[in-house]
Design a protein that fits this description.
Radius of gyration of chain B: 40 Å
CATH class of the largest domain in chain B: Alpha Beta
CATH topology of the largest domain in chain A: Phenylalanyl-tRNA Synthetase, Chain B, domain 3
Distance between the termini of chain A: 92 Å
CATH architecture of the largest domain in chain A: 3-Layer(bba) Sandwich
CATH class of the largest domain in chain A: Alpha Beta
Oligomer: heterodimer
Largest sheet of chain B: 7 strands, mixed
CATH superfamily of the largest domain in chain A: Phenylalanyl-trna Synthetase, Chain B, domain 3
Radius of gyration of chain A: 41 Å
Number of domains of chain B: 2
Shape of chain A: elongated
Largest sheet of chain A: 7 strands, mixed
Number of helices of chain B: 11
Chain lengths: ~800, ~350
């Protein structure tokens, strides 16, 4: 919502000396000032000139040389890029030394070798409108060398652009903004009574309305204006409309818009001659009904959703609260106007405008709720604006009520006000804050309890909390003294939140970067990554690439690896902690949403993933998790991948991306991969990290190399070693793997170092020999033989 | 025997001085004092002496041994020093001549910001709550006092998913549904922050992503007032942004709070003096806040007369971008290592 300072001043004596300070008050009232524009400022040095001659620039196609007369009869050369000039035009020239409204300084300069002694200006360059298609052509009768401000009769003004919240329908009008501002500043506010000289007659004999559906229309008020002569609006009306962002059209349309902007009452003017009988019907649309709106578009209406105004023959001639129809549009020949001022059900207009995709200044106001008490005022104001062109309001009116909620009286307790705001405001203070806003406060029977009658222009205010918000707003949020929080409660991370931090720390320490690909996939992404295609889909995606919710972190991370490869960054290591979404389990509405961890290490093989996993599992204290390579997961390298398993539970997958998937994604490097379902992995007790007593006695190392079948996982050898070695075993580590002569094909040598130690004594040779015998024996059933 | 001892003791220093390395010295020591050394052999011969002679000879032997050991120790120390010196001289390293520096990874900017924010709030006594990213219409809208046809629904461009009845299951448009879950699942007093990922039907550009992050705070207790909200946000503001940055609240509208406010902070770039980033206002809009709407409390079964509360929320991505001067939000989400590695922590 834009407002002009001069317009606001018609309702209250606002000071004009400090627009910024005034803007700060508007912001503090919740009407946030988005910009302040000073109209007519910065136009010093811009004067009227006449085009004497147009010449082509010898060295530039897009620049014309324009000789202008600044009033002294001399030809002054200007370079100009616009092409809308003809000889004899009077146009604005920014003379040398002028500072333009946008801050640009005009100096004498050469453009492609030709001097330019100033700049001819467009409307936008003068901040006189949005037009930048050509030079602003002035009235040819203007004297030359005249300051533009004088020639155009521009009075300096200030334009505020305000952001109005949806709960402030009253602030969708100049008068409403003025009322709020005047209340805060303690200035008297009044809407001047329109001065209207009515024409004898009786409108109710010319027109009538039948509200068929009272749930659509709360109030329908009709007046008739006769003696219409279509002509351009007076300059001041056109300027104000332009300033507020509406295009001036003709005196009738402009007056209609002016009233809407000023008072917040959208209204509609019909050409009475195009409405046989002058009778109107207000009803819900019927399915299949169509109407051509003012913008020339034929629109299909939906029964029960859109409201219509129909003529005597029941044909729709307007969409209720949204836009009028073309058939009764005001034209050059219009002489008598039927004026409609109505109150439409806000929800109906919101729905209609949303689903039709048709938003208008009118619908924006109706859907927030307009003031049903000002229909007469609005009609008379419109007539007053049109009076100079000879138009006169015909005596009499038609007013029909539909369903209109009564204005509530709200019980407001001073104690509740202060409890909710943390203030110490007295009942008297509450009354003095609310009264200038139009709220009527009465002391009820109880102490410090007010009965507050809400004004008709504040439909958003229906209960005590609503009123408290108004009190707070006008008391001033900045005057409410903040109360520092007490620390009677304690904060902490949950175990999973702590685990996440540990995970991130270890992975970052291992050289892996955290990435956050979007959780959206394109159809086919899952299949390309070797994953099942079943997934939750987005109903209304903006792009097909964002139409599927990921079931795995794999497509996103692999795409990021590909992105890096395509930018000549190889060997990238990325991890992600994020949600994946599977189809709901039966009986549930929401997807099976799980938090997964994944990493992708480009240029490294599966053992890199396994090594990182070992450290990760140690950090988190995850025990008894095995890598089961018997059934490699889909989309992973069949010989280099497995499932992370704890007992019967599947925790995730580990290994290397399948070469086929790499090809499908255009990845050059192999990619080590892990994905872990964090919820499952961290569900079991973990990370207790119990203290193990450290023995004071010396330890001994026992190195044993076994020849083992390639098919037998090293993990099973190690597990057998651990269980056979007994309580003396402190650590066991694989320190050498060897394939080749003399080890037969299909087998390899695995060398383990066992560190042995007793808690209470120094080990003897017999102790060590005993461990060796047990281990070797235990490995025989696995087909492992001790190497000499 | 005494003569032998005297002779050996007298000759020892020259032998010891002749050793030119620790290894040579070790051989000399073995010759003099070892198991097969001369003094050891003499000691073994003492068995044939009378008690008095044995006493005298024993004493002489010990004296000789002590004097030889003293000389040995000095020589050993000298030789070791010399050997260390020559070793050090050959072991020079140029510490700028590095090959294969191990790489470190990096936390995502969103995570870094998330953790920083969460740490401040934990310090203020808040717990950290989370909720699902795909939500029902009830949690995301209805319970928050945004009924189906409410014009305020237009404030959020919602992405729906093909589950349940049309437009009933959606990608949460804000972290506010977690408020409802926290109040439904728990009991006041509640002091919680809720960071999380949120979704909007928005085309990505330099300042928008269809997926981004918010953090939201909720306090529900007895006698919680707007003054508590203002005080909490002020405490957070100076804790997170620094003591010179203050907050202000301006009236606003949200369906789930009343009174509602915009939460602004002094511009962190110009400290309130006015600059390009803050449009010369000296203030940055950070987010929204307000007193929890009585309807929202009723929706989760809390009596608004007994309990009151406040909520606040703001975008997390923008804070991350602001801190590091990143001018395009999309950079954070490509996974480009050249971007990620710039922010190790």
């Amino acid at each position: 919502m834009k407002v002009l300072l001069s317009w606001l001043q018609e309702f209250a004596p606002f000071p004009g000396d400090d627009p910024v300070a005034l803007g700060d008050v508007m912001s503090d009232l919740g009407m946030a000032v988005e910009s302040i524009e000073r109209i007519g400022e910065g136009l010093d040095g811009i004067v009227t000139v006449k085009v004497l001659e147009l010449r082509t620039h010898p060295d530039a196609d897009k620049i014309q040389l324009v000789d202008v007369d600044i009033g002294d009869g001399e030809a002054l050369q200007i370079c100009c890029g616009a092409t809308n000039l003809t000889v004899g035009d009077v146009v604005p020239l920014a003379t040398l030394g002028t500072t333009m409204p946008d801050g640009m300084e005009i100096a004498r300069r050469k453009m492609r070798g030709e001097w330019s002694n100033g700049m001819l200006c467009s409307g936008r360059e003068l901040a006189l409108g949005e037009d930048h298609s050509g030079i602003y052509i002035l009235d040819p009768s203007f004297a030359l060398g005249l300051p533009i401000v004088e020639a155009l009769g521009i009075t300096p003004d200030v334009l505020f652009d305000l952001e109005i919240n949806p709960n402030r329908p009253d602030a969708m009008s100049v008068a409403g903004v003025a009322r709020d501002l005047a209340a805060r500043l303690g200035l008297p506010f009044a809407i001047p009574a329109p001065n209207v000289d009515e024409l004898a007659g009786d409108a109710s004999s010319i027109t009538s309305v039948d509200i068929i559906d009272p749930d659509l229309c709360g109030l329908f008020h009709i007046r008739v204006i006769d003696g219409i002569k279509i002509e351009p609006s007076p300059r001041w009306i056109a300027d104000r409309l332009s300033a507020l962002g509406m295009r001036p059209i003709n005196n009738v349309v402009d007056a209609s818009n002016y009233v809407m902007l000023e008072l917040g009452q959208p209204n509609h003017t019909y050409d009475l001659a195009k409405m046989p009988g002058g009778a109107l019907r207000v009803r819900w649309a019927r399915d299949g009904e169509t109407i051509t709106t003012l913008d020339g578009v034929e629109r299909n209406l939906t029964g029960g959703r859109d409201g219509v105004i129909a003529d005597a023959s029941d044909s729709a001639i307007g969409i209720a609260g949204v836009m009028g129809g073309a058939s009764t549009e005001i034209s050059e020949t219009t002489t008598t106007v039927l004026l409609e001022c109505a109150w439409w059900q806000p929800m109906a207009i919101a729905r209609s405008s949303k689903f039709m995709g048709l938003r208008s200044e009118a619908s924006a106001r109706f859907e927030r709720g307009v003031d049903p008490a000002i229909v007469d005022l609005a009609a008379r104001r419109l007539a007053e604006l049109l009076a100079p062109s000879g138009a006169r309001l015909v005596e009499g009116s038609v007013t029909v009520n539909g369903e209109l909620a009564p204005t509530p009286a709200v019980r407001v307790r001073t104690s509740r006000v202060n409890q909710l705001l943390g203030t110490d405001i007295s009942t008297e203070q509450i009354i003095s804050l609310l009264t200038p806003l139009g709220f009527v406060c009465e002391l009820g029977g109880e102490d410090d309890v007010l009965s507050v009658t809400v004004p008709t222009f504040r439909p958003d205010t229906t209960n005590e909390t609503d009123v408290i918000e108004e009190i707070a707003r006008h008391y001033g949020y900045s005057k409410i003294v903040g109360r520092a929080p007490t620390s009677a409660h304690t904060g902490s991370l949950t175990p999973i939140q702590r685990d996440r931090r540990s995970i991130r720390q270890i992975l970052v320490g291992l050289g892996i970067h955290e990435a956050m690909p979007l959780p959206f996939l394109a159809p086919g992404d899952l299949a390309r990554c070797g994953l099942p295609p079943e997934a939750v889909t987005v109903t209304n995606p903006l792009a097909a690439e964002e139409s599927v919710l990921r079931t795995s972190l794999r497509p996103g991370l692999l795409r990021a690896i590909a992105y890096n490869e395509s930018h000549r960054t190889d060997g990238v290591a990325l991890f992600e902690l994020g949600k994946v979404f599977a189809l709901p389990v039966s009986g549930e509405t929401l997807p099976d949403e799980r938090e997964h961890l994944a990493f992708a290490l480009a240029g490294r093989d599966a053992t890199a993933a396994a090594n990182v996993w070992v450290l990760l599992a140690q950090t988190l204290g995850l025990e008894d998790v095995v890598i089961d390579q018997s059934a490699p997961p889909a989309g992973l390298h069949p010989g280099r991948s497995g499932v992370l398993r704890r007992g019967g539970e599947q925790l995730g997958e580990i290994g290397e991306i399948d070469p086929g998937v790499l090809d499908a994604l255009g990845l050059r490097e192999r990619v080590a991969w892990l994905q872990l379902d964090l919820g499952v992995a961290l569900a079991a007790p973990h990370g207790e990290h119990r203290y193990h007593h450290i023995s004071r006695y010396p330890s001994s190392d026992l190195d044993l190399a076994f020849e083992v079948d390639n098919a037998l996982p090293a993990a099973s050898i190690e597990a057998a070693v651990r269980s056979a070695a007994g309580p003396l075993l402190v650590t066991v580590s694989l320190f050498d793997v060897f394939r080749g002569n003399p080890v037969p094909d299909g087998r390899r040598s695995l060398a383990y170092r066992l560190r042995l130690q007793a808690p209470d004594r120094t080990l003897t040779d017999e102790d060590i020999g005993g461990v060796q015998r047990s281990v070797v024996e235990a490995l025989i059933p696995l087909g492992a033989t001790l190497r000499g | 025997m005494i003569d032998d001892i005297t002779r050996i003791a007298a000759a020892a220093p020259a032998l010891i001085a002749g050793a030119n390395s620790v290894d040579e010295l070790r051989a000399v020591e073995a010759d003099l004092l070892g198991k097969k050394g001369e003094l050891t052999l003499l000691k073994k011969g003492m068995g044939g002496l009378d008690p008095e002679g044995r006493k005298v000879a024993g004493s002489a032997l010990n004296d000789a041994r002590d004097s030889i050991e003293a000389v040995l120790a000095v020589r050993r120390s000298d030789l070791e020093s010399a050997e260390r010196a020559s070793m050090v001289a050959t072991e020079q390293l140029d510490l700028t001549e590095l090959l294969g520096t191990p790489e470190r990874g990096s936390l995502h900017l969103v995570t870094q910001t998330w953790d920083r924010l969460v740490d401040v709030f934990i310090g203020m006594g808040f717990t950290v709550a989370e909720g699902p990213e795909v939500e029902t219409d009830w949690y995301n809208f209805e319970a928050l006092n945004i009924p189906a046809a409410h014009p305020a629904r237009g404030m959020w461009d919602t992405l729906y998913v093909d589950l349940g009845d049309p437009e009933t299951v959606l990608l949460r448009t804000h972290t506010s549904p977690v408020q409802i879950r926290v109040m439904t699942d728990g009991e006041p007093p509640i002091y919680a922050v809720m960071p999380g990922r949120v979704y909007r039907r928005d085309t990505a550009d330099a300042s928008h992503m269809p997926v981004f992050h918010q953090i939201e705070g909720l306090v529900v207790d007895r006698n919680i007032s707007f003054a508590d909200l203002a005080g909490t946000l002020e405490a957070f503001t100076s804790a997170y942004f620094g003591g010179s940055i203050h907050s202000r609240l301006r009236p606003s509208y949200f369906p789930f709070t009343e009174p509602s406010a915009e939460y602004d902070i002094n511009c962190v770039f110009c400290e309130g003096n006015g600059c390009r980033t803050c449009g010369q206002t000296g203030w940055l809009e950070l987010g929204g806040c307000g007193m929890v709407h009585p309807t929202v409390l009723s929706n989760v079964g809390l009596d608004p007369e007994e309990w009151s509360g406040f909520a606040f929320g703001f975008g997390l991505d923008r804070l991350a971008l602001m801190r590091h001067g990143v001018d395009d939000i999309r950079e954070m989400y490509t996974g480009d290592v050249r971007f990620l590695e710039q922010f190790p922590s």
